[in-house]
Write a structure and sequence with these properties.
Length: 411
């Protein structure tokens, strides 16, 4: 999905400061939210006084003897005390779900859970690190694909929109992984909700398109699925998730405190994928890549690198894009006169404007047929900033001087 020189941004693990080593403040916890989270994570109600409190235990006896008394509301005098004791008990619990429940209470979040059905390792309770890494990589790719789809609905994003999409992932937290099979991400609500809503629709659209392809042999459903957020990036992420497993699934659970977003099911269950889906996913990715057209653009950018084989003739230029394209950098080949203008603009700290076609091959990182290079006037403040940036990249500056003006005649 990405080139080797553009690694995926890592999602943040859960913050490790003192606030995360103690239970949430009971005054900030809604008993109904705690009850909903316990039920979601498989805890069992074992009685209690109807209308006042319920007694909850972990999903399996092996997870410890923890028993929680959770008030149903704050309508009774002892509700706050019971809630505080329940949170303390959760904090001490050995149940794997206890920490995830506390995270979801501390930062109300939509939960995204990936599960891979992988063969057991050679040692009970031990997981090869490669298996865990594959899960985390597939999860990051899935979230990035959904984040890209919040910026544009297109079959292939390439390098476009990567900056804003990565910014959307900044608030997403990762819970603890379980034996390389299960991983949960927490997208804060409501700020992260566009991400989870888009992923919800895209996953279901992908599942429907695969089912249609496997039933009819036709790929048409993948074309319509683009409107729901399906893309080459998502099909590659799901391929990575499923490869090497007996099956995989992705489930989304909405933050109880934020409610169910419009147009989404309250409890749709996980979306499942199997190794038999891989041919359709690969074919869809190839289809999206070939169908995405090149785009005619007018780009404004700062020249950060110049290179040519001799003192005269055409040369290649690297631009840091300011406007006109949704990518951070572009490579282009310029004729001698345009190259000379770009070199002068580089030396005096002025951006340039250039016209050409943004090519899909290579991820929309290359501008072909580039012509009409002209310097762009900027105010003094902006020019000083650009010059400071230029001075911070002296290797580019020296290369430009040595190669763009190596003949010594000012050309």
């Amino acid at each position: 999905m990405t080139s080797p020189d553009e690694p995926l941004r890592m999602l943040r693990p859960h913050p490790d400061d003192s606030a995360w080593h103690r239970p949430p403040d009971p005054a900030r916890v809604d008993p109904a939210d705690l009850t909903a989270l316990l039920r979601r994570h498989g805890w069992l109600r074992r009685g209690g006084v109807p209308g006042r409190y319920g007694r909850w235990t972990p999903p399996t006896p092996a997870e410890g003897p923890t028993s929680l008394l959770v008030p149903e509301s704050r309508a009774f005098p002892d509700a706050d005390d019971l809630l505080g004791e329940a949170l303390d008990a959760l904090h001490r619990s050995a149940a794997p779900s206890a920490r995830e429940i506390l995270i979801a209470l501390a930062v109300p979040s939509d939960e995204i859970r990936w599960h891979r059905d992988t063969p057991a390792g050679p040692v009970d309770g031990a997981t090869p690190w490669t298996v865990d890494e594959r899960l985390r990589t597939a999860a990051r790719q899935t979230l990035l694909a959904a984040a890209l789809a919040t910026r544009a609905r297109t079959g292939y994003h390439g390098a476009r929109h990567r900056g804003p999409a990565a910014t959307l992932l900044d608030g997403v937290l990762l819970g603890p992984a379980t034996e390389g099979r299960t991983l949960t991400a927490f997208a804060p609500a409501p700020t992260g909700r566009p991400l989870t809503v888009r992923l919800h629709h895209a996953l279901h659209a992908t599942r429907e398109a695969i089912d249609y392809q496997r039933a009819t042999g036709a790929m048409d459903a993948f074309d319509g699925a683009v409107a729901a957020g399906v893309s080459r990036e998502l099909t590659e992420a799901l391929t990575a998730l499923v490869r090497g497993t007996e099956g995989a699934r992705v489930a989304i659970a909405w933050a109880p405190a934020a409610g169910v977003p419009d147009g989404c099911a309250a409890s749709a269950g996980p979306v499942e994928f199997s190794p038999g889906d891989l041919p359709a996913l690969r074919a869809a990715g190839a289809r999206y890549l070939s169908a995405e057209p090149s785009v005619t653009v007018s780009v404004t950018g700062v020249v950060v690198r110049l290179r040519r084989s001799g003192p005269r003739g055409a040369g290649t230029v690297r631009l840091r894009v300011l406007a006109g394209a949704e990518v951070p950098h572009l490579r282009l080949t310029l004729g001698e006169e345009d190259y000379r203008i770009a070199g002068h603009a580089h030396l005096v700290g002025l951006p340039v404007r250039v016209h050409g076609r943004l090519e899909r091959r290579g991820g929309f990182r290359r501008l072909t047929g580039a012509t009409g290079v002209v310097p762009v006037r900027v105010d003094e403040t902006e020019r000083d900033r650009l010059m400071k940036s230029l001075q911070e990249n002296l290797d580019f500056f020296e290369e430009a001087c040595g190669e763009a003006y190596g003949d010594g005649d000012g050309k």
